[in-house]
Write a structure and sequence with these properties.
Lipoprotein signal peptidase; alpha+beta; 150 residues; EC 3.4.23.36; single chain
Length: 150
């Protein structure tokens, strides 16, 4: 139940931050948070990670829906089998991020991104992206060090 609640909280946080970005960053110059390191810049991403499949929203919606089904199934199995908390947490994070970006794709036909690293050439991202990447890293740790098998 804890991980389900975490998923819901992250989805709400992601959507709230995106609404804030729309209201406060759209049409505005880049805002510096940490000089030379992190800034805020509003963009509308019509693709997936690194703009893969840019402009192919229906395909991305279908792929996300299928992946969400698989992740949800793995999450339920992990909870029922009392897998290590890192495994359950990883699926929770991945689901939250995927659902957050899925909501944007369905509502807007693009995903709202706004965090920008200034010190490297890295894609602009959002809270959902952070959740997905964190979840994948934790799942890799579980697979490598905790002997977890998908």
């Amino acid at each position: 139940m804890l991980y389900f609640a975490l998923t819901c909280v992250l989805i709400v946080l992601d959507q709230w931050m995106k609404a804030w970005a729309i209201d406060n960053l759209m049409g505005q110059p880049i805002r510096t948070l940490i000089p030379g390191i992190l800034g805020l810049r509003y963009i509308e991403n019509t693709g997936a990670a690194f703009s893969i499949l840019s402009g192919k929203q229906l395909v991305l919606i279908l792929i996300t829906f299928i992946i969400l089904g698989a992740i949800f199934g793995l999450f339920i199995r992990a909870v029922k089998n009392h897998e290590h908390f890192i495994v359950q947490l990883s699926y929770s994070l991945i689901m939250a991020g995927a659902i957050g970006n899925f909501i944007d794709r369905v509502r807007f036909n693009y995903v709202v991104d706004f965090f920008e690293f200034k010190f490297i050439n890295f894609p602009i991202f959002n809270v959902a992206d952070v959740a997905i990447v964190s979840g994948v890293i934790l799942l890799a740790i579980a697979t490598l060090f905790l002997d977890y098998n998908l």
